[in-house]
Amino acid sequence: MAFLMNQMLGDKLKSFTGGGGEGNGKAGAEGKETAESKGMSREEFEEYQKQMVEEKIQRDKDFATKKAERANLRVALRDKYRLPDSTQDTALVEMAGDDIDVPEELAKMVDEDEEEEEANDSFLNRLQNLDMDTLKTKAQATMTEMKQNAEEKCTLM
Protein backbone atom coordinates (compact mmCIF):
# COMPACT_ATOMS: atom_id res chain seq x y z
CA MET A 1 0.00 0.00 0.00
CA ALA A 2 2.80 2.44 0.91
CA PHE A 3 4.61 1.55 -2.30
CA LEU A 4 1.51 2.33 -4.34
CA MET A 5 1.01 5.69 -2.57
CA ASN A 6 4.67 6.58 -3.06
CA GLN A 7 4.44 5.80 -6.77
CA MET A 8 1.29 7.84 -7.26
CA LEU A 9 2.08 10.88 -5.10
CA GLY A 10 5.86 10.82 -4.75
CA ASP A 11 6.80 12.98 -7.74
CA LYS A 12 4.05 15.50 -7.05
CA LEU A 13 5.02 15.76 -3.38
CA LYS A 14 8.71 16.20 -4.21
CA SER A 15 8.03 18.95 -6.72
CA PHE A 16 5.72 20.62 -4.21
CA THR A 17 8.21 20.46 -1.32
CA GLY A 18 11.32 21.30 -3.30
CA GLY A 19 12.51 17.87 -4.31
CA GLY A 20 13.55 16.49 -0.94
CA GLY A 21 17.12 15.50 -0.19
CA GLU A 22 17.19 12.38 -2.32
CA GLY A 23 18.48 12.56 -5.86
CA ASN A 24 16.68 9.57 -7.34
CA GLY A 25 18.35 9.76 -10.74
CA LYS A 26 16.58 12.84 -12.08
CA ALA A 27 19.02 15.38 -10.64
CA GLY A 28 22.06 13.96 -12.43
CA ALA A 29 25.22 12.42 -11.06
CA GLU A 30 26.58 15.51 -9.29
CA GLY A 31 23.27 16.74 -7.86
CA LYS A 32 22.94 19.50 -10.48
CA GLU A 33 19.62 20.53 -11.92
CA THR A 34 18.63 19.04 -15.24
CA ALA A 35 15.84 19.81 -17.66
CA GLU A 36 13.99 16.68 -16.57
CA SER A 37 14.21 17.58 -12.88
CA LYS A 38 12.60 20.96 -13.60
CA GLY A 39 9.99 19.50 -15.91
CA MET A 40 11.10 21.59 -18.90
CA SER A 41 12.34 20.93 -22.38
CA ARG A 42 16.04 21.33 -23.06
CA GLU A 43 15.62 24.71 -24.82
CA GLU A 44 13.44 26.06 -22.03
CA PHE A 45 15.94 24.88 -19.45
CA GLU A 46 18.87 26.53 -21.27
CA GLU A 47 16.90 29.78 -21.51
CA TYR A 48 16.03 29.49 -17.82
CA GLN A 49 19.69 29.02 -16.88
CA LYS A 50 20.75 32.00 -19.03
CA GLN A 51 18.13 34.12 -17.35
CA MET A 52 19.29 33.00 -13.90
CA VAL A 53 22.92 33.86 -14.74
CA GLU A 54 21.91 37.28 -16.12
CA GLU A 55 19.86 38.03 -12.99
CA LYS A 56 22.76 37.05 -10.74
CA ILE A 57 25.16 39.26 -12.71
CA GLN A 58 22.71 42.18 -12.45
CA ARG A 59 22.28 41.65 -8.69
CA ASP A 60 26.04 41.55 -8.20
CA LYS A 61 26.46 44.68 -10.31
CA ASP A 62 23.77 46.55 -8.34
CA PHE A 63 25.33 45.43 -5.06
CA ALA A 64 28.77 46.63 -6.13
CA THR A 65 27.32 49.97 -7.22
CA LYS A 66 25.55 50.51 -3.88
CA LYS A 67 28.69 49.49 -2.02
CA ALA A 68 30.77 51.97 -4.02
CA GLU A 69 28.20 54.75 -3.47
CA ARG A 70 28.39 54.20 0.29
CA ALA A 71 32.18 54.19 0.18
CA ASN A 72 32.11 57.41 -1.86
CA LEU A 73 29.89 59.03 0.77
CA ARG A 74 32.18 57.88 3.58
CA VAL A 75 35.18 59.33 1.74
CA ALA A 76 33.34 62.64 1.26
CA LEU A 77 32.39 62.78 4.93
CA ARG A 78 35.96 61.97 5.99
CA ASP A 79 37.21 64.80 3.79
CA LYS A 80 34.60 67.17 5.16
CA TYR A 81 35.35 66.45 8.81
CA ARG A 82 39.08 65.98 8.23
CA LEU A 83 39.11 62.40 9.49
CA PRO A 84 41.81 59.88 8.52
CA ASP A 85 41.27 58.14 5.20
CA SER A 86 40.24 54.51 4.95
CA THR A 87 42.26 52.52 2.42
CA GLN A 88 39.35 50.12 1.91
CA ASP A 89 36.92 52.91 0.99
CA THR A 90 39.48 54.60 -1.23
CA ALA A 91 40.11 51.32 -3.05
CA LEU A 92 36.38 50.74 -3.57
CA VAL A 93 35.92 54.23 -5.02
CA GLU A 94 38.91 53.82 -7.32
CA MET A 95 37.65 50.44 -8.55
CA ALA A 96 34.23 51.90 -9.31
CA GLY A 97 35.72 54.80 -11.25
CA ASP A 98 34.05 58.14 -11.90
CA ASP A 99 30.63 56.61 -12.58
CA ILE A 100 29.69 56.48 -8.91
CA ASP A 101 27.94 59.44 -7.35
CA VAL A 102 26.63 59.98 -3.88
CA PRO A 103 22.95 58.94 -3.76
CA GLU A 104 20.58 61.91 -4.12
CA GLU A 105 18.95 61.54 -0.71
CA LEU A 106 22.30 61.37 1.06
CA ALA A 107 23.64 64.29 -0.96
CA LYS A 108 20.64 66.39 0.11
CA MET A 109 21.28 65.51 3.76
CA VAL A 110 24.96 66.47 3.45
CA ASP A 111 24.05 69.75 1.71
CA GLU A 112 21.59 70.64 4.48
CA ASP A 113 24.27 69.93 7.08
CA GLU A 114 26.73 72.13 5.19
CA GLU A 115 24.23 75.01 5.09
CA GLU A 116 23.66 74.74 8.85
CA GLU A 117 27.38 74.64 9.47
CA GLU A 118 27.96 77.68 7.27
CA ALA A 119 25.44 79.63 9.34
CA ASN A 120 27.13 78.53 12.56
CA ASP A 121 30.57 78.78 11.02
CA SER A 122 30.38 82.55 10.55
CA PHE A 123 29.95 83.08 14.31
CA LEU A 124 32.68 80.58 15.12
CA ASN A 125 35.06 82.17 12.64
CA ARG A 126 34.50 85.60 14.15
CA LEU A 127 35.04 84.16 17.61
CA GLN A 128 38.29 82.47 16.56
CA ASN A 129 39.55 85.54 14.74
CA LEU A 130 39.11 87.82 17.75
CA ASP A 131 42.28 89.15 19.26
CA MET A 132 42.22 88.02 22.87
CA ASP A 133 44.59 90.72 24.08
CA THR A 134 42.40 93.55 22.79
CA LEU A 135 39.32 91.83 24.14
CA LYS A 136 40.97 91.49 27.54
CA THR A 137 42.03 95.16 27.64
CA LYS A 138 38.53 96.29 26.60
CA ALA A 139 36.98 94.16 29.34
CA GLN A 140 39.39 95.51 31.96
CA ALA A 141 38.78 99.11 30.83
CA THR A 142 35.02 98.58 31.02
CA MET A 143 35.32 97.10 34.51
CA THR A 144 37.43 99.97 35.81
CA GLU A 145 35.04 102.47 34.24
CA MET A 146 32.05 100.77 35.85
CA LYS A 147 33.86 100.70 39.18
CA GLN A 148 34.60 104.43 38.99
CA ASN A 149 30.97 105.22 38.08
CA ALA A 150 29.76 103.09 40.98
CA GLU A 151 32.13 104.81 43.40
CA GLU A 152 30.96 108.24 42.27
CA LYS A 153 27.28 107.36 42.62
CA CYS A 154 27.51 105.28 45.77
CA THR A 155 28.24 106.97 49.08
CA LEU A 156 29.14 103.71 50.86
CA MET A 157 32.02 102.80 48.54
UniProtKB/TrEMBL annotation:
Keywords: Exocytosis, Neurotransmitter transport, Synapse, Transport. The keyword Translocase does not apply. GO terms for molecular function: syntaxin binding. InterPro entries: Synaphin. GO terms for cellular component: SNARE complex; terminal bouton. The keyword Transport applies. Residues 29-47 have a biased composition (Basic and acidic residues). CDD domains: Complexin_NTD_CPLX_III_IV. One of its GO terms (biological process) is synaptic vesicle exocytosis. Residues 17-28 have a biased composition (Gly residues). It is found in: Synapse. Residues 14-47 are annotated as: Disordered. Belongs to the complexin/synaphin family. This is Complexin 4c. It comes from Neolamprologus brichardi.
